[in-house]
Amino acid sequence: xxxxxxxSKIHRVKVTQADLNYIGSITVDEDLMDAANIIxxxxxQIVNNNNGERIETYVIKGERGSGVICLNGxxxxxxxxxxxxxxxxYCSMEFEExxxxxxxxxxPDENNRI
Length: 114
Fold this sequence. Notes:
Layout: E1 2-14, E2 17-19, E3 26-29, H1 30-36, E4 43-48, E5 54-62, E6 69-72, E7 84-94, H2 95-100, E8 104-106
Parallel strand pairs: 1-8, 2-6, 3-5
Antiparallel strand pairs: 1-7, 3-6, 4-5, 4-7
Function: Catalyzes the pyruvoyl-dependent decarboxylation of aspartate to produce beta-alanine.
Subcellular location: Cytoplasm
Organism: Sediminitomix flava
C-alpha cells in the first residue's frame, strides 16, 4: 500500500514578489530548491502564515542565491510581499518504507538564504 507523506518543506520564507500577470506557479531560489530536494515543475503546497491560505501550485526555478520567492498568476492575489510562507512537498511511498523516512526540513534566514 502506498501513502502520501511529507517529503520536504521550506519553513518560513518571505514573499519577495507577487506577479499577477505571469502564467502561474511559484518561483523559488534554486539554492532553496536544492536544499529541499524540490525540482522544477514539482507540485507543492504553499501555506501562508499571515492569512491561513493554502495554495497548490508548481515550482519554477529562480535565480540561485537571490532569495526570490514569487507567487505568480492567480496565486499572487493570495499573498502580500513580506508574507511568511511554508513550502511543502509530498511523495508517495510504500507504507513500511514511509515509517522510517525522514523528511528534509529547510530553515532559511530572514533573507531566504540557507
